[in-house]
Amino acid sequence: MNYICMILDGAYPNDIRVRKEAESLAENGLKVLIVCPRKSGEIQFEFIKGVEILRIGNNYNNFKKGIFDVIESVTNVNLLFYAELRKVFQKYDIDFLHVHDLPLAGTGFLFKSKVKKKLILDLHENYPEALKTWFLWKKSLFLRAKNFVFMNPKIWAKKEQKYSKKYDIVICVVEEMKQKLISNFSIHSEKLVVVSNHEKKDFVENFNHEIAQNIIKKDDFSITYVGGFGPHRGLDTVIKAMPKIVKSIPNAKLFLVGKGTKDVENTLKSIANETQVADFVHFVGHRPFKEVSTIMQVSDINIIPHKANDHTNNTIPHKLFQIMMSKSLLLVSSCTPLKRIVEKYDAGVVFEADNENDFSEKVITIFNHKNLFHAKTENALKAVLEEGENWENESLRLLKIYQN
Description:
It is a single chain. By secondary structure, this protein is α/β, with parallel strands linked by helices. It has 17 helices and 14 strands. An 8-stranded mixed beta sheet has the order 3-4-2-1-5-6-7-8. The protein has a 6-stranded parallel beta sheet with strand order 11-10-9-12-13-14, with helices on both faces. Strand 7, helix 8 and strand 8 form a beta-alpha-beta unit. Helix 1 crosses helix 17, helix 5 packs antiparallel against helix 7 and helix 9 crosses helix 12. The two termini are 15 Å apart.
């Protein structure tokens, strides 16, 4: 049996989407090889749950990644991956090359003639539009200039069009992304497959009471965000809403579970100080994945407050489906995919994106009428467990690509 080779410019198994895809394919008897960078202290080669991992290079860090990103933006080639993939193709028989996200698309395409069957591009998000938002709060003039020149959204939109047409199959993270590629680039729908960021049904099986008490106290009315921090996440909207919320709900606390860059976290803390709610906003920091379920389950409200733009309207976070299984009320912004799924199943509450007044009003209403929203949490759980909004069902679309 020949290999499916996945290339990822990130850490494995930390990348949830890649890990779920790779493990599902391996569980169905397919041989999967992950090629990803090696950071300091990481093992070069190992097996994890039936997946072979080959980590390339030495002491990969953000500085080195920045250098490779600059070269890649100009030449369309990641030199580290190109050099190591030549060795991989000499050693392994590769039926499929599965390239994760747009930056490695140019490098992967150089090996098209060596792939025995199909070349697959897996678009995790609307990358060109993401570039418009990721760097908004950067303070360094040097980094802002570098990103303007080398990470220019217009340049990357042309790359997205070019490689979406050249690859045999393009995996989209959400239906909205598929429709964008069809309408903007006239990509044939037959080559586009939606494999979304659903979660496994056993996500909520782990519960640790001690973890829950260490983070969220029994008397807190907890409003919890879990995930990465960034300008597009809408956390500034939530913090700006807290003065009005605290005035009506004195025991309200906002828990921000995750991390962001120094510039992002400083910006959020400045907003909390300026609005005089720093005592009500808790920066919990990064927590291990195994703790996330517990945190979500004990929270009164779990939020996904993304701003609505061409990036967030064409992607979907794993935490949407994780929260739907937590039996905790879901409050999301009006981003297209979030709103679509929540309203389809009546599985939570929607507020107008980037509107702190609407967010605060929704939170206060939920606090004052908790019993009225219990049915929504049941609907959310049912959607995942009984109506197919889970990874067990979603992964069949991925498997079908390879079985066909």
